[in-house]
Specification:
This protein has helices at about 10-30, 30-40, 45-50; strands spanning about 60-70, 75-80, 85-90, 100-115, 115-135. By secondary structure, it is of the alpha+beta class. It has a domain at about 40-135: Nucleic acid-binding proteins (OB fold (Dihydrolipoamide Acetyltransferase, E2P), Beta Barrel). InterPro entries: BOBF_sf.
Length: about 150
């Protein structure tokens, strides 16, 4: 009857176990990539990208993959968001058209001569894919009965 409630502080190991467990859970479910891209406050819109004129500036972009152009050993894809579109060069496998992607890239400019006028065409070199959500879900066209094959 003379018992007192004694609160014990968690040991250092117990106090660090919960964050470790949460981190392992995020990695195993594949959610860590989403958190990286979504928590990155430096993601800019493509219209904002058009205002960046510094060659080799590193930028973070997010959008939907439009047109794709494969090259030998590399390729390019058009990244679109609600404000515009930009071409992205990559040495990696091209994402599928319609995929949502977040990238870290580097701004490049290419001079283009048209007649006597020369202008600068801007594009982005992909340094890293931070997030990629495939939109290639198999969907049946409206009014098509479900397949009965097994």
């Amino acid at each position: 009857m003379g018992r007192e409630m004694v609160s014990q502080k968690p040991s250092r190991w117990q106090g660090s176990f919960l964050p470790l467990l949460v981190g392992v859970g995020l990695i195993s479910c594949g959610c860590a990539g989403d958190l990286i891209a979504l928590s990155n406050s430096s993601v800019i819109s493509i219209s904002e990208l058009q205002q960046h004129q510094k060659e080799s500036e590193v930028v973070y972009l997010k959008g939907i993959v439009g047109d794709r152009v494969p090259f030998l050993g590399s390729g390019a894809y058009q990244l679109q968001d609600r404000t515009g579109a930009v071409w992205v060069m990559t040495q990696k496998e091209l994402p599928s058209q319609g995929d949502e992607i977040a990238i870290k890239g580097q701004i490049k400019h290419e001079p283009i001569a048209i007649g006597e006028q020369e202008s600068q065409q801007m594009y982005v070199v992909e340094l890293e894919q931070l997030e990629r959500r495939s939109q290639s879900r198999s969907q049946q066209p409206a009014g098509t009965p479900p397949s009965t094959e097994k």
